[in-house]
Amino acid sequence: MKPIGSTLAYLRKNLNMSQRAFKNIKQSTIGNIEVNNTVPRVNTFLDIISELHVSLDEFMFILNGYAYDERTTLFKDVRAMRHSLYAKENVELKHRIEQYVENNPRDMFIQDLKVILDSYIEISESDTYEIDSPKSFAIYDRIEEQKIWTYEQIYVMSKLFYIFPEKRALEIVQRIDKEFEKYNSYENIQGTRIAFLLNAGGYRISKRLYATALPLVEKARDLSYAADNLVTMSFANAEIAKVKHAHGEIEEAQILIDNAIAILSLSKKQQLADDIDHSWRNFITELEAAPVN
């Protein structure tokens, strides 16, 4: 990673600007910053990159050698997971997170991501949300008491709420949804919001709270359609199928499932298609074993 001052000098020279060309900053200040004699104050720094016509995000990208830093890359890769937990790339991602945590033990957020992946694996292997995860409860206790949640904290809570006891989980869902509203226009928020809606809806379906589950998964479907995301749209339709089947609309439910599996299979996402098929078969088995009154 280059020093901040050197990167600012690199961008200024690329624009053929002199150090005197900045409107609100003295040439001596720019000079000291560029040779790394001083670190600019936040407002000064923001003024400089504004006149250099780069955003903060792009500046950090350039500063890191035209690449995202390791922490940002890990978070992006976790958000971009589109395959089974056991897919090669996700096993490698888990290993990268473990290495990062070992080298950066004070980074609570990446530690939280590791707990999320560990919980997902345990849920997948046991095929139930009812798992014992003391680390997840510790995360909840740490974040819940805060009056304001950052986006990273909202993300973490949106991925862990369903392992808590039912009453507590439903309360957390309401808080998460409220916190999400504050970030409605935040960059790349829709993917995270869709995933949350799918998780919240799926959780309610597992508890047979079909009436409150349906609006969530339908919203996930609609947002997925607007974003042209066939993967999350297929998963949303699979959850809608479960609600319809529980309500006696068996033929329509089967059509939704068959279409979801076919779309993913044709998109060469067979692992995800198999995940939907497995989840569907388990749902039917459980429903037939203990029919809704």
UniProtKB/TrEMBL annotation:
Q: What is this protein called?
A: HTH cro/C1-type domain-containing protein
Q: Which residues form the HTH cro/C1-type domain?
A: 8-59
CDD domains from the entry? HTH_XRE
Q: Which PANTHER family match?
A: TRANSCRIPTIONAL REGULATOR-RELATED
Per its UniProt entry, which superkingdom is the organism in?
Bacteria
A Gene Ontology MF term for this entry?
DNA binding
